[in-house]
Design brief:
The structure is a single chain. The chain has six helices and ten strands. It starts with a helix and ends with a strand. By secondary structure, it is an alpha+beta fold. Strand 6 and strand 7 form a beta hairpin. The protein folds into two domains: 50 residues; 233 residues, Phosphatase 2c, domain 1, CATH 3.60.40. Strands 1-10-9-6-7 form a five-stranded antiparallel sheet.
Length: 287
């Protein structure tokens, strides 16, 4: 009987060792796969960041700054500001639906097309090298990136041309968050906007114009700011609270400081839970 018990115990131990070995092997493979996935996402995120500007352009009489906080490694938000040869400045901010790799792939394509230093850009006329009107640029994006059942993707955006001398911004708002004029009487530019980019083919996009006064700023942003959720109860930050916060800032604050304080404010609101969406904003400040 003792011999039988020993044999049975031996079989059980051997089986247990085999199971442990298999589990360790599977766990090691799983860990290896996780490491590979993590490194791939980090590489993709680094590539996406490399397509974005490190510093805003220097503009006589004006300042530009921005904030960027993706909620995951990869982001569907993108923005840019480029000074052109004629001293005009391209400014844009966009938000692709969804999160993660799928949204980031589209955002990367858009970053390339909206960079005037890229030979394949659509912001400059291919012959004259003069800037295309905002409605033409957004219309071309709408033509190229129509929504399909497979992708189910579209994006909102504000795209404009700023003239520092006249402080005029001619822009298109394709269903993006309403811009905010930051001044002694901070207000949101509520009004008509066009459809999102990619939703309907043959859409006409309307150009609008803002002329900023001295000491005024224009803030464009993604809905990750106004829809940021408070940790304790899930309440959204909201447009009214956003305008109130901006209105409390000192009028002589630099563009960089305003973005820094906005980042701190949204982090405080979200708490330890962090952001539930990509967070980005761009400010154009006239001095």
């Amino acid at each position: 009987m003792t011999d039988i018990v020993i044999v049975v115990l031996g079989v059980v131990v051997a089986a247990a060792c085999f199971v442990v070995t298999v589990l360790l092997y599977k766990n090691s493979r799983l860990e290896l796969a996780n490491r590979y996935m993590t490194s791939s996402l980090e590489a993709a995120a680094a590539f996406q960041r490399s397509l974005m500007q490190e510093q805003p352009p220097e503009i006589v009489g004006s300042e530009i700054s921005w904030l960027y906080e993706p909620c995951d490694e990869l982001a569907g938000d993108a923005f840019g500001a480029y000074k052109l040869n004629g001293q005009q400045v391209i400014v844009y901010q966009l938000d692709v639906t969804g999160h993660g790799v799928k949204a980031a792939l589209l955002a990367v394509n858009l970053l390339r097309l909206l960079n005037p230093n890229n030979p394949d850009n659509i912001v400059l006329d291919s012959k004259t090298k003069l800037p295309n009107p905002p409605a033409k640029v957004v219309g071309e994006l709408n033509r190229r990136f129509q929504i399909t059942p497979e992708s189910n993707q579209f994006f909102t955006m504000i795209y404009g041309l700023f003239n520092p001398e006249s402080r005029s911004l001619v822009y298109v708002n394709a269903a993006h968050s309403s811009p905010v004029i930051l001044s002694s009487n901070t207000r949101m530019l509520n009004g008509d906007s066009d459809l999102p980019v990619g939703v309907v083919d043959q859409t006409d996009f309307t150009e609008r114009e803002i002329i900023l006064d001295e000491k005024q700023s224009l803030v464009i942003y993604s809905d990750g700011i106004t829809e940021a959720m408070r940790e304790i109860d899930g309440e959204l930050y909201g447009e009214d609270r956003f305008v109130t916060f901006l209105n409390k800032l000192e009028s002589d604050s630099s563009a960089k400081r305003i973005m820094r304080e906005l980042r701190t404010e949204i982090r405080r609101w979200c708490g330890k839970a962090g952001f539930n969406d990509d967070l980005s904003a761009l400010i154009l400040k006239c001095n």
